[in-house]
Amino acid sequence: MPSKILIIGACGQIGSELTTKLREIHGTENVIASDINTRKLDLVNSGPFEIIDAKNFNAIKDCCKNHNIDTVYLMAALLSATGEKYPMEAWDLNMNSLFHVLNLAKGGNIKRVYWPSSIAVFGPTTPREDTPQHTICEPTTVYGITKQVGERWCEYYYKKYGVDVRSIRYPGIISHKAMPGGGTTDYAVEIYHEAIKKGTYECFLSEDTSLPMMFMDDAIKATIDLMEAPGENLTIRSSYNLSAISFTPKEIYESIKAQMPDFKISYKPDFRQAIADSWPSSIDDSVARQEWNWQHSFDLDAMTAEMLRALKKKYH
Ligand code: AKB
């Protein structure tokens, strides 16, 4: 019997590309996309789609029952910058959606759960360079607090109830299909769009702010590899550190400028600077590399080449 998969938050930046990939692997009819609205019409029209508010336990439960779902990817979340503007909404969505899915899985019908965590679990007291898997986590954002607490609950449900939940601490994810929304690392996507559309970009972080980042293809591969890994190989049931590249706004600008010599950048840090300053600049992901053979493919220049190629096609 093929796996029947539900993706909650399928219209978001990662959810939309994950849906496409999972449909390629498992067959379109076996992957139910869901979101609170139908904002991505290509996704809505290309396979099974349900409107689900991730805060609504019964909506998730009914969908799982109606479609015999055995695997759930919970991708809905309010990210770091939006979370600072709407703290209670971030807490409500990020925590309750997780409890709904973990509690359904505890009931036994859902066999496997994927839930993304983030580098936002770390804070100013965490070692900034090569941040270890096990280290101090004192996040200062609402988003980071929800992810840190969520990790504790994932591990708890695994140990106490045997829920097969798996998770990755995503760095900033860069892609050219769906836009990210409300994150601190979003500049690294916006910069490519503005380079193509206007030839200039005003960056909301300072030029030397180094953050861990990853190209979407690598993030999707990691997510699916982790979900397919034999459970007995996995020692981390909170969330795996994952890393690919780290760069500053100046470095990504230079990578773009090498291909677009007239491109200009200016810097106007806003409230997101303080969030970025509280996060690591690079991550030690050796545990993921050992336990499920994680390897990334894209470095900064390979990613720039792919982003510019795709966005030129989109805008010209
Ligand atoms: C954000 O910037 O909030 C996210 C993240 C690092 O989790 N992209």
Automatic annotation (TrEMBL):
Highest taxon above the source species: Bacteria
Any Pfam family matching the protein: Epimerase
SUPFAM superfamilies given in the database record: NAD(P)-binding Rossmann-fold domains (SSF51735)
Molecular functions (GO terms): L-threonine 3-dehydrogenase activity
Residue ranges occupied by any NAD-dependent epimerase/dehydratase domain in the UniProt entry: 5-232
InterPro entries: Epimerase_deHydtase, NAD(P)-bd_dom_sf, NAD(P)_epim/dehydratase
Signal peptide positions (record): none
Biological process according to GO: L-threonine catabolic process
Sequence similarity: Belongs to the NAD(P)-dependent epimerase/dehydratase family.
Protein name: NAD-dependent epimerase/dehydratase family protein
Species in which this protein is naturally found: Winogradskyella ouciana
Record lineage: Bacteria, Pseudomonadati, Bacteroidota, Flavobacteriia, Flavobacteriales
